[in-house]
Amino acid sequence: MRYSRIVGTGGYLPEKILTNHDLERMVDTSDEWIRSRTGITQRHIAADNEMASDLALNASRKAMEAAGIKPGEIDLIIVATTTPDMVFPSTACILQDKLGARDCPAFDVQAVCSGFIYALATADMFIRAGRCRNALVVGTEIYSRILDWSDRSTCVLFGDGAGAVVLTQSDRPGILSSHLHADGSHNKILAVPGSIRSGRVQGKPFLIMEGNTVFKFAIKVLEEVAHEALTENNLEASDIDWLIPHQANIRIIQSTAKKLGIPMEKVVVTMDKHGNTSAASIPLALDIAIRDGRVKPDQHVLLEGVGGGFTWGAVLLRW
Ligand code: UT7
């Protein structure tokens, strides 16, 4: 059988840090409110000259170094992003150029905070189908540019960053299964409803969110999709060594873990350091847990995310 395995991870957070205390001086909020309602203490903000492809480049180089893979060996690039460098070409094509990678398919995936799960599942299918050997899968976001910095209900939640993995063909898994979902009837609940028309921005080019609706939906589907992955692989929740969820809100994560019966000691939580980085949050958290040695060979790791669309999904893998 042909499988795919993650053989290298990398993460990148821009240098500038914006703390909750900094935000207290910008909007009517408090460090106490942000920490207790979300678990976030700080977020990183990209420099003016940094684009999503630059963040992706830094994370990708680290992942490729960890994997021992040169740019010329990459034969598929998938970038998950909601904040691309420009309308087109894709951030994946720009990243390919910056990396000096050779001719290979390169495209973006747009599934908001589930984007990395969608991208990883897609790369896994390319590899299983025998269409590529080494895929670079990246989540990269600069949310600081699509936030209304006068709206306290959203601007305190998000941050900038990138995470990347190298996925390689292998005769042992690897990725055990992936599970993708979308329900577009919720497309107005979490959105950046602006668009470009005749050289002008139409509509609001800032993130809007019915936080409470997203919160309840997230708790519901993160439990459901975890069970879906466990059932497909004849595993119990107790077989999961590490749960690595999308890093949006500590209360969503705690509630999901509790419903699944997974103790918080087995859950990777990083959002305190970088806020919600959308498509970058899962690969960033995975990279941290790999590099600090938490995740050991043969352990079961469940990645799962939910975001605008709504989209949601999970990838279950054996490390
Ligand atoms: O990544 C995609 C997925 N996104 C998510 O998963 C986000 C999901 N949603 C959430 O994480 C939470 O709903 C929020 C963190 C966005 C909000 O938490 P909440 O506990 O649902 O708060 P709320 O929206 O019900 O607001 C409670 C109160 C309100 O005041 P009143 O009406 O009770 O007087 C808000 O105006 O908190 C107020 N509030 C704030 N207060 C201080 C809202 N934002 C702030 C703020 N600082 N930044």
Concise overview:
With 319 residues, this protein is α+β, with helices and mostly antiparallel strands. It has helices at residues 20-24, 31-38, 52-67, 91-99, 115-128, 152-155, 211-232, 250-260, 271-274, 281-291, and strands at 3-12, 16-19, 42-45, 76-80, 106-109, 134-142, 160-170, 175-182, 190-191, 195-197, 200-202, 208-209, 242-245, 300-307, 311-318.
Fold and architecture overview:
With 319 residues, the protein is of the alpha+beta class. The protein has two domains: 3-172, Thiolase/Chalcone synthase (Peroxisomal Thiolase, Chain A, domain 1, 3-Layer(aba) Sandwich), CATH 3.40.47; 176-318, Thiolase/Chalcone synthase (Peroxisomal Thiolase, Chain A, domain 1), CATH 3.40.47.10. 33% of the residues lie in helices and 27% in strands. It has a five-stranded mixed beta sheet with strand order 1-7-6-4-5, sandwiched between helices. Strands 8-15-14-13 form a four-stranded mixed beta sheet, with helices on both faces. The chain has a two-stranded antiparallel ribbon with strand order 2-3. The longest helix is centred in the C-terminal third of the chain and has 22 residues, at 211-232. It is globular. 51% of the residues are buried.
